[in-house]
Amino acid sequence: MSICEKERCSECDNDPCVCDDSPKKIIKVTLADNKVRNLDSMVETTFWRASGTPMSAEAFMKQLHGDLPVFFKSEAQLRKIWSLPSTRSRLLSELKENGYNDDQIHNMKLAISASTCDIFDVLNYVAYNKGVLPRLERANKAKIMLFDYDPDQQAFLNFVLDQYIKEGVKELDIDKLSELLKLKYNAIADAKETLGDIQRFVKTLLVFKNICIGRMWLDPHFGLTC
Predict the structure, then answer these.
(1) DSSP β-ladder status, 54-55 and 36-40
(2) What is the pLDDT of residues 52-90, one digit of tens each?
(3) CB 165 within 8 A of CB 172
(4) Can you tell me the distance from the alpha carbon of 32 to that of 22, in angstroms, rounded to the nearest whole number?
């Protein structure tokens, strides 16, 4: 009886592979702008057409690239939309209404090796072939802008940024404030004792989100090392 010879890993020469990270198999996808995007074929993802039939990651990327100009016309407009909680939420809702729900976008994030990045990075990469930036790097850049706040405010704003790193951009929405205050201080009463008047602090938080955090996406060079 013949013995089946399995293919050994080209990196470590073992079967099964014992590399810390198995070598990726990258699919090169040329989109309508004649520029190439990369997809990691080793990542398990599932995409669906509006009809309910499955589609490949490559087909989904091409469809998404073709549809994105309906939602924004330029990278600058995308950055402006994403920098404000209100317009960002509206864009996410419009994407969802047109078949690009959280699961679909998350799977695209995995397929382009951007699991620790923002949804913004997925949209910007697919639409304009721009590089992605991990949420940790983006948030750490924002933390240097906290010096105008008192220590207790800084502590909470840093906590908000840490939640963004862990959970994603929806943690920055203003309707998450009550939940975040309870998560940080256990009770709203304790938050008031630490931060003072909550309504006044809401205004402070809005300024921070609209200006300081907003800069994380408005500035195309944000996060780049000089």
Answers:
(1) unpaired
(2) 899 999 999 999 999 999 999 999 999 999 988 889 999
(3) no
(4) 31
C-alpha of 91 from chain center:
14
Cα–Cα distance for residue pair 125/190, rounded to 1 Å: 42
Q: pLDDT tens, 2-27? A: 344 445 555 555 555 545 555 568 99
DSSP-based three-state secondary structure for 153: helix
Q: What is the DSSP letter of 168?
A: -
Task: Find where tokens 């599932």 sit.
Answer: 46
Apex 91 CA angle, 89 and 95, nearest 5: 120
Structural domain spans, the chain? 28-128, 135-218
Our CA dihedral for 211, 171, 114, 105, rounded to 10 degrees, sits at -110
Cα end-to-end distance, the chain, whole Å: 63
Contacts of 187 (CB under 8 A, 6+ apart): none
Structure tokens at 211: 């200006």
